[in-house]
Amino acid sequence: MKSSLVISITSFFTNYLPNIVGYSENTVKSYRDTFVLLFKFADEHHLCPRGRIVIDIFNKENILQFLEWLETDRNASVSTRNQRLAALKSFSKYASSNLIEYINTFQQILDIKLKKGTSKTVDYLTVDAVSLLLKQPTSDTHDGIRDLALLSLLYESGCRVQEIIDIQFGNISLKKPATITVIGKGRKVRIIPISSNVAAIISAYTAKYKITGSQQFLFTNKHGEPLTRSGVSYILQKNTDIAKKQHPELFGPKIHPHVLRHSKAMHLLESGVNLIYIRDFLGHSSVTTTEIYAKSNPEIKRKFLEEAAFNIDGIVNKFSDKEKQTLLDWLKKNI
User: Fold this and answer.
1) Which domains can be identified in the chain, with CATH numbers?
2) How far apart are CA 210 and CA 56, in angstroms?
3) Do β-strands 172-173 and 189-193 pair in parallel, antiparallel, or remain unpaired?
4) Rounded to the nearest 5°, which phi and psi values hold at 181?
5) Is 160 annotated in the active site?
6) Would residue 146 show up in a list of annotated catalytic residues for this protein?
7) Catalytic site includes residue 258
8) Which tens digits make up the pLDDT trace of 261-317?
9) Of 93, 135, 258, 295, which is the active-site residue?
10) Does residue 256 carry a catalytic annotation?
11) CA quadruple 191, 194, 198, 203: dihedral positive or negative?
């Protein structure tokens, strides 16, 4: 018979995370990886009989040693260490309500503080860099039109990589005003306006690839399967490498898909869009009267976003260093 601890762990992953708090599949997998690593650590350090899960594993001192092991033995960053601790705290909060006899054990885990690390800088591309990047895919080839559609939409929408991967043809409306519907973290749905230029690229791409079914994934590999994160990264890096040969000063040493999300946020700010609308656009809005107003009145959000729609040949307005730093600080904290 399974122990109450094992039953709680199973319920935590199969019901609580996906159904009660609505965490995404990727977040659930990240939490799962934390537990896999914890049990690996417990086996290696003989904290429990091999292959068994016992409450002793969750002793505060063991958890602290586990966190140090992540950094020293597995070369994890402070950020990764804190993410693993966040997963354990989430379970401890859940277990405190379901395993009353162990409430003191889990409360001690909840009392563990996050470790402070050096501040991360936010990577983003200038307007010139994005413009050059989007000129690299050749739209007259099969792969080229797909790459152009992917990179254009990734930047235009400010979507997370997984949100782009999950987009199906039925999530797109190419009639004016064009929009895409995405499901973000916490399964929150948001409707994002896209420019007529990007809508035309998507239209040409779907016509060339004969994408017509509402449940067809928008971006697929040569096997007809949805693109993976590594697939998206490969396409971005491939085109970045070409652009970098022309103007190496525009690109940093490492480019990843999230850079386009950061870049979109920065360019919206440069164009005069208020942070409230940027936060709503990215799917990280807080509960304030103004943001609720923006959400409940799509035309207001559309007005600001369409006025700031990226124009490859356009001129970007100047913005203050203080405004720029405000967004950078917010991005580091929330994205």
Assistant:
1) 4-110 (1.10.150), 127-334 (1.10.443.10)
2) 57
3) unpaired
4) -110, 125
5) yes
6) no
7) yes
8) 888 888 887 777 777 777 777 776 443 323 432 343 455 456 555 655 544 444 344
9) 258
10) no
11) positive
